[in-house]
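Consider a concrete sample entry:
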Amino acid sequence: VGYPLCPLDAYDEAKKASVFILNARGGEGVVRELLSYIETTKKEEV
């Protein structure tokens, strides 16, 4: 994985291996938060 991340309620092992921990819990907007993060990051790079 190029950029390991996980939801807020992930197992501790997953959090330790992650570069980024999302604020949303699994099933409560994780994908939306990730897409928003990617969109914001892409705009800043342009």
